[in-house]
Amino acid sequence: MNRLGPCLVVMLLGLLCGCPPPNAKFAPNTATAAVARINANLERINQPIYARPALTSVRFHDENGRDYRFIGHPARVMFAAPRCLRFDIEHSLGGKIAEVGANDERYWLWKEPDGAMLWWGTWEAIEQGHARRLAVPPDQLIDILLFKPLPEQLPDGIPPLLDQRKYDRVLVYQRFNEAGWPYIAREVILKPHSDYLPAEIIDYRLMDDGQTREAMHAYLSGYKPVEDAGDDGPRTPRHYVVYWPIDGSELRLDLDRVRFRNIDVPCDFPTEWVGEQECLDTGLTPD
């Protein structure tokens, strides 16, 4: 009778005992190591990024409860550090029908047709807590796309802790409330199948009653190197699914190609806008 080889025996025992996946031995054991690994990858994104072709679906509603949907539209994404962002949603027959954008001073979202509307605000107001929320927040969108390194800590916060959950690792970012007590503001979940690059990003919002609620939950997958950067080039996700449960917004984005382009990203604020517009900065009016 043939005997099972030692390697096969080990494999069978591993299946029975629930042994870790092969790359689990490379799991980071400290928050410093986890952030360093992720940022060593993302810091190599040192040129403008251009992603096209792409496909997106977006759903959001305004403060009056009116619902907007763009389902299965072509898209393109461009980004240059630190905040130059263009996320264009296009009609299948050509031309843009919506845009999420940002530059060093402002961020915005405009949509047409069915009542052209522009929402915009300044980063200064966001940072000071004097801004109403945008349905698809550009600051979170830049974080979700992973075109820039993770922060060593959030504003008014402390460096993250590393939580070990079986084979997953979770970077737990905390902030302090007005009474000086810490609360969990963000979790970045690292999984073996993504080689411990971010697989989920969860932001929490501190509510008026002192409790936190899940404000944004992003799922990232399909990591591949940036094109023309070689097999060891910086890797970025190709598939994103994002929910904003409190705001009732949703974004799905699939990127077919992501590559470097040595050109300026057009992130000028749409000063020539002729439709309705709304400034999100508290107490400010449009120029």
What is the makeup of the main sheet? 15 strands, mixed
N- to C-terminal distance: 86 Å
Uncertain parts? 1-17
How do the SSEs run, as a string of H and E?
HHEEEEEEHHEEEEEEEEEEE
Report the β-strand fraction as a percent range.
35-45%
> Which of globular, elongated, flat, extended, rod-shaped describes the shape?
globular
Average pLDDT, to the nearest integer? 88
Helical content band:
10-25%
Q: Helix/strand-derived class?
A: mainly beta
Number of strands: 17
Number of helical elements? 4
Radius of gyration, in angstroms, nearest whole number: 21 Å
Attribute tags:
two-stranded antiparallel sheet, mainly beta, 17 strands, 287 residues, globular
Indicate the topology.
Elements: H1 6-17, H2 31-42, E1 49-61, E2 67-80, E3 84-90, E4 96-102, E5 106-111, E6 117-122, H3 123-127, H4 138-145, E7 157-165, E8 168-176, E9 182-190, E10 198-206, E11 212-221, E12 224-225, E13 235-236, E14 239-244, E15 249-255, E16 258-260, E17 276-279
Parallel strand pairs: 6-17
Antiparallel strand pairs: 1-2, 1-15, 1-16, 2-3, 3-4, 4-5, 5-6, 7-8, 8-9, 9-10, 10-11, 11-14, 12-13, 14-15
